[in-house]
Amino acid sequence: MRRKLLLLVLLVVVLGTSVVEGNVLRISPEMELMAGVLSQTSWIEKRGPTGSGNEYFRALQDFFAPYQDHRAVTLTEEMLKKGFAYDAPPAFICHLGPLPELGIAYEYSDYLVGRAKGRENLEELRIALSELAAEADFLSFYAAWKPYLDETLEPYLADFRFEHLEEWLQGFFGWSPDAYQLIITPSMFPGGGYGASVTDALGHNIAFQIVREYGASEGRPEFPSGVTLEDLTVHELGHAFVNPSLEAYPEKAKKLRPLLWPVRKIMKDQAYGTVAGFLNEQVIRSMEVLAARDLFEPEMETTILEHHEKWGFYLTRFVLSQLEYYQAHRAQYPLFTDFVPYLYDQLALYQKEHSPWQARLFGHFLR
Asked: pTM for this one?
């Protein structure tokens, strides 16, 4: 407990903001700066609202419109075209400290460097974003909107049971990150979220969740709430547990590439085009079903299961059965990391016994 409290103090000093303690969601001016830049790029054509967007987003987009030719915008556009999309921009911001300095709070992960095609590109973008924020006086814009945004958040904080979710995740995986950061983004769309993890110089791990706005409102921003928000939180924070556990065995993952083949197109459309990305998502989505069984009303388990199968995750029931085995044998597997080699072996056996094209028989995604 003392170690965790010391880490919380360090995070407050580094980030200049509060760390999640209890049911806290926050809006990050640094993430809003990134969102404002993205609103001036091709990102918004695919990841924008269904209409003109909520009133805050329209003001943010208008605010940055005069800076379309700024290096921060043009560099972001160049990086987007080279694959720095989906979770990459928000994950990048998770590595940075507060404005106006926007310094490196956590060294860039290998994953992020790979998405950016080099650390130098991340640094160039970081400096350009800091310069744009200063030139445009973005913090004054954000300060003017902060009371409105705080008021918008209030209903979503009322029944958000973060401690309940944290307890379940820690119990299921057998450990917990050193801290959590939950960021809600009124100008990233459409619904859903992203997960990211960072590691400080002392090896402490901080798990981030980024929650996107639904994208249909032209009034106040609207976000997932209640059970929907809690399920999303289990999913996004699940990345902090599942990804490093599975990615510790890259050779085992490569041998399972045939499992991706029958759903490769629908997975690529969802940005899960690699076998590692597909397996991470598949395990997380099966874990979600188990979490729903323990945390929510019975109908949610079925709803979540059918949703994931509809979107191409045809192994959900099979992986779910393996996770149930893990739950029943915790004396043998006290940590999820202890269980991962067994899980890979079972997936390899499934691959050997089933033609991957039998995936067409499962779910509705190929109808």
From this structure: 0.89
Nearest-angstrom CA–CA distance, 19 and 59? 28
| Cβ contact 333:172 at 8 Å | no
Say which amino acid occupies 328: A
Q: From CA 340, how far away is CA 168, in angstroms rounded? A: 19
Yes or no: say if 193 and 211 are a contact pair by the CB < 8 Å rule. Answer: yes
* Average pLDDT of the residues of the chain: 91
Asked if 112 and 91 count as a contact pair (C-beta separation under 8 A), the reply is yes
- In sign, the C-alpha dihedral spanning 43, 268, 206, 160 is positive
Quick check: 243 and 112 in contact, CB under 8 A? no
Average pLDDT over residues 227-246: 97
Strand partners, 199: 205
Q: What is the identity of the amino acid at 282?
A: Q
**What radius of gyration do the chain's Cα atoms show?**
21
d(CA 83, CA 293): 36
Residue 175 CA to residue 159 CA, distance in Å, equals: 25
Residue 123 has what DSSP assignment? H
> Which strand ranges, in their side-by-side order, compose the sheet holding 179-185?
179-185, 205-212, 193-199
pLDDT confidence of residue 13: 39
Instruction: For residue 197, give the H/E element and its range.
Output: strand 193-199
Helix axes 55-64, 29-38, angle to 10 degrees: 70
Q: Is the predicted pLDDT of residue 19 greater than 50, yes or no? A: no
Angle between helices 316-328 and 336-353 (to 10 degrees): 140
- Neighbouring CB atoms inside 10 A of 75's CB total 19
Distance, CA of 172 to CA of 152 (rounded, Å): 33
User: What is the Cα–Cα distance from 25 to 52, expressed in whole angstroms?
Assistant: 25
Provide the token pair at 304: 């979540």
- Rounded-to-integer distance, Cα 207 and Cα 198, Å: 7
Q: Which pLDDT band, with edges at 50, 70 and 90, does 78 fall under?
A: very high
Measure the CA–CA gap between 224 and 229, rounded to whole angstroms. Answer: 5
Dist CA 275 CA 57 (whole Å): 35
Sign of CA dihedral 15, 271, 33, 26: negative
Distance set, CA 71 to CA 7, 34, 104, 132, 352 (Å):
36, 13, 19, 8, 51
